[in-house]
Write a structure and sequence with these properties.
Elements lengths: L2 H17 L3 H18 L2 H17 L3 H18 L2 H17 L3 H18 L2 H17 L3 H17 L3 H19 L1
Length: 182
Amino acid sequence: MTGRGQARAANNLAFNYRFLGRHEEAAAALNDALAVQRQVGDRYGEGIALCNLGEAYLEIGRLDDAIIRSREALAIVRDIGSARVEGYALCNLGRANLDLGHAAVAADMLGQALAIHRAEGDRYGEAQDLQYIGSASAQAGRLAEARTAWQRACSLFAALGEGAPAAEFRSSLLQLDAQSAD
C-alpha cells in the first residue's frame, strides 16, 4: 500500500471510530494518518488530518491539544488556499474557546468560519457554525442572539436531513424559553 493509501485507510478508520464515539482511538488513527501525510509531503492531507485531529481532541476534552492542532491546520490550509478546511479549523478554535469560557473570542472565530462556509456554499458547516455561535451568544448572556442562531441552525440541519441536531436545537430553544420565563 502506498503512503497516501495508508493515510486514507487511517483517516477512514478514524472516521469510523468517531462515528462510534470512540474518540481516543480516532485520535490515534488520525495521528497515524498525520505522520504518513507528513512523510509523503501531502500538505492538503496534512491540513485535513490536523483539522480532524483538533476536532477529535475537542471531543475528548483535550482543549490545549485541540487548539494546537487546529492552529497548525489553519496555517497550512491558509497557505495552500483551502477555504473550506479553513472554516472547519476556525470552527474548532471557536469551539475550544467556547469550552474555555471565552465567548467573545469564540464568537469571532465562529463568525469567520460562518463567513467562509457561506461563501463556499457549505450548508452543513454553516449550520454547525450557527450552532456554536448560538452557544457563544448564550454564554455571553445574549439570549435573543442565541435564539436566532439556534433557530437558523435548526432550520439548516432539518433542511439537510440531519434530524438529530435539529431535534437537539428544538430542545435547546425550549430550555431557553423556560429560562426567559423565569
